[in-house]
Amino acid sequence: MQRPFLRGPEAAAAPERPERRQFMGAVARYGFSAAVIGAVGGTLFSERAMAATSQEENEREAAAETTLVMATGYTLGASRAYPIMQLNFKENLQNFTGGRLYVKLSPGGQLGAGGALITKVQNGTIAMAQHSISNLSAFAPEVDLINIPYWCGDNQRLINLVTSRSWRDVVHDKVEARGFKVLNYICIDPRSVAVRDGLLDGPVRTPEDIEGIKFRVPSSEILQKVYRLAGANPTPVAWGETSSAMKQGVADALDPSVQALLVFGFTDVLSSISTIQSVPDAQVYTCNKAWFDAQPAAIQEGILQAADVTFRENLAKVPAARACAYYQMREAGVSIYSPTEDELAQWKERCGHQLPAWDETKRELAGSLDVFDELLAATEVSNGYYVDSDI
């Protein structure tokens, strides 16, 4: 089975490949930044190109007024199937600030991932990081609204929402009060229902198919409630332990997007993935608010321009990344099932946002049911951004 995007403990346990030895040699000769850029750009094995890349990086860093660290949990090559766009963002930040910023990438979880990165951004240890919107909810609970199912799970509805004035009024001010500046959102695809090998004879089609099964969930109380309403048994498992939990039968299913399941190496764990389109599996780039406010106005403007351009590049990349992930998964023997409209209606009826069971959550996070209804209406209005939603 092909496992192209290993990282973390699995990557460490994998046998060293010639490409890795060559990469580490390039790091030793040209520096980390030049090596990772060369690897993604296809120039890694060209000494002349690597030398030119190294020289350009050194010159950019020397000429910049400010060097900032951008930390992510994903390797640079993951953007083929998981469009996190970190190299694009680095270059856009440098170019739109006229070279006044130099961005030092820290990909692949070198400085941590998820909540660890958010903490470092909040306390100013690093200036900028990528993490999931769901992880941000532990620091800014309002963003957890997106985990209420079937109101913004569709890609276009999500993008309409997060670019709306209503979302910014309800959410962004509160996020900034906690020390963060939201730069741009990263669309991937909605969460799924992925089941372990040997559990079912076929893919999950309706909520009845997951009745009573042990469904791995993160710490989000909202996501736990989603799968409880759907009839499953929510089982909190730390992300780093999820693969082994699935193999051992401690958990039977989990819900990341197809793309995330691929890049985190679940190809030999799963039998099928069903794209139920319930909740976004989206990411966000944030920076330390005090750091941003301390920058000159021209640099602030350049950062925001770079963020918008990278956001648009991400939206354009979504269908290609999806095609890559689906191909890799199917090649590994994992089936991908798209529920029918009737089957999706059963999921919505069972756990959708319209249920009174969500009213208390809406009041707590949005402030009132009327405000939530304003946000719901915002999901229907385009703000000039298009993303493919044909899951």
Please give the largest β-sheet: 5 strands, mixed
Lateral arrangement of strands in the main beta sheet: 2-1-3-10-4
Question: How large is the share of residues in beta strands?
Answer: 5-15%
Mean pLDDT, as a whole number? 89
This entry's quaternary arrangement is: single chain
Parts with pLDDT < 50 across at least 5 consecutive residues: 1-15
Helix percentage? 40-55%
Structural class: alpha/beta
Q: Order of helices and strands, N to C?
A: HHHHEHEHEHHHEEEHEHEHEEHHEHHH
CA gyration radius, whole angstroms: 21 Å
- Distance from N terminus to C terminus (CA atoms, Å) equals 24 Å
Number of strands: 11
What form results from the Cα inertia axes? globular
Figure out the total of helices: 17
How would you summarize this macromolecular structure in one to three sentences?
Helix content is 46%, strand content 13%.
